[in-house]
Amino acid sequence: MREQYLAPNETMQIHELLNLKTICMTTSKMMEGVVFDQDLKALLEKDVQQSIKSIENLQRLLNKAPKLR
Q1: Burial status of residue 30 (CB atoms within 10 A of its CB: 0-12, 13-18, 19 or more)
Q2: For residue 32, what pLDDT band results from cuts at 50, 70 and 90?
Q3: Rounded to whole angstroms, what are the CA distances from 10 to 14, 49, 65?
Q4: Are the C-beta atoms of 61 and 6 separated by less than 8 Å?
Q5: What are the backbone dihedrals phi and psi of residue 25, each rounded to the nearest 5 degrees, phi first?
Q6: Is the Cβ–Cβ distance between 66 and 5 less than 8 Å?
Q7: pTM, rounded to two decimals
Q8: CA 30, CA 27: separation in Å to the nearest integer?
Q9: What are the DSSP calls for 2-64, one per residue?
Protein backbone atom coordinates (compact mmCIF):
# COMPACT_ATOMS: atom_id res chain seq x y z
CA MET A 1 0.00 0.00 0.00
CA ARG A 2 1.23 3.46 -0.87
CA GLU A 3 2.04 5.87 1.93
CA GLN A 4 -0.03 9.03 1.90
CA TYR A 5 1.69 12.36 2.33
CA LEU A 6 0.41 15.86 2.78
CA ALA A 7 0.73 18.29 -0.08
CA PRO A 8 2.96 21.33 0.56
CA ASN A 9 -0.03 23.67 0.86
CA GLU A 10 -1.69 21.32 3.37
CA THR A 11 1.48 21.23 5.42
CA MET A 12 1.61 25.03 5.46
CA GLN A 13 -2.05 25.27 6.48
CA ILE A 14 -1.53 22.82 9.34
CA HIS A 15 1.45 24.88 10.51
CA GLU A 16 -0.74 27.98 10.49
CA LEU A 17 -3.44 26.20 12.50
CA LEU A 18 -0.82 24.91 14.92
CA ASN A 19 0.50 28.44 15.46
CA LEU A 20 -3.02 29.78 16.03
CA LYS A 21 -3.94 27.05 18.53
CA THR A 22 -0.66 27.55 20.39
CA ILE A 23 -1.25 31.31 20.70
CA CYS A 24 -4.86 30.76 21.83
CA MET A 25 -3.79 28.19 24.42
CA THR A 26 -1.04 30.45 25.75
CA THR A 27 -3.45 33.38 26.02
CA SER A 28 -6.04 31.30 27.89
CA LYS A 29 -3.40 29.93 30.25
CA MET A 30 -2.09 33.42 31.02
CA MET A 31 -5.61 34.78 31.56
CA GLU A 32 -6.30 32.08 34.16
CA GLY A 33 -3.87 33.81 36.50
CA VAL A 34 -5.62 37.19 36.40
CA VAL A 35 -9.27 36.07 36.41
CA PHE A 36 -11.13 35.95 39.72
CA ASP A 37 -14.46 34.50 38.56
CA GLN A 38 -14.39 30.72 39.11
CA ASP A 39 -16.76 29.97 36.22
CA LEU A 40 -14.56 31.89 33.82
CA LYS A 41 -11.45 30.16 35.20
CA ALA A 42 -13.11 26.79 34.58
CA LEU A 43 -13.92 27.79 30.98
CA LEU A 44 -10.35 28.92 30.41
CA GLU A 45 -8.98 25.66 31.82
CA LYS A 46 -11.34 23.68 29.59
CA ASP A 47 -10.13 25.71 26.59
CA VAL A 48 -6.51 24.97 27.51
CA GLN A 49 -7.20 21.22 27.75
CA GLN A 50 -9.04 21.17 24.41
CA SER A 51 -6.27 23.20 22.80
CA ILE A 52 -3.67 20.71 24.02
CA LYS A 53 -5.61 17.87 22.37
CA SER A 54 -5.96 19.87 19.15
CA ILE A 55 -2.24 20.65 19.12
CA GLU A 56 -1.39 16.96 19.59
CA ASN A 57 -3.72 16.03 16.70
CA LEU A 58 -2.17 18.66 14.44
CA GLN A 59 1.31 17.43 15.32
CA ARG A 60 0.27 13.88 14.37
CA LEU A 61 -0.96 15.18 11.03
CA LEU A 62 2.37 16.89 10.43
CA ASN A 63 4.05 13.48 10.67
CA LYS A 64 2.45 12.78 7.28
CA ALA A 65 4.26 15.73 5.73
CA PRO A 66 7.00 14.71 3.31
CA LYS A 67 10.43 14.78 4.88
CA LEU A 68 13.05 17.01 3.32
CA ARG A 69 16.37 15.38 2.63
Answers
A1: exposed
A2: very high
A3: 6, 25, 8
A4: yes
A5: -65, -45
A6: yes
A7: 0.82
A8: 5
A9: PPP---HHHHHHHHHHHHHHHHHHHHHHHHHTT---HHHHHHHHHHHHHHHHHHHHHHHHHTT
Four-CA torsion 29, 31, 37, 43, nearest 10 degrees: -40
Mean pLDDT of the 7-13 span: 88
* Rounded Cα–Cα distance for residues 26 and 24 (Å): 5
Helix (H, G, I), strand (E, B) or coil at 66: coil
Rounded to whole angstroms, the Cα distance separating 39 from 58 reads 29
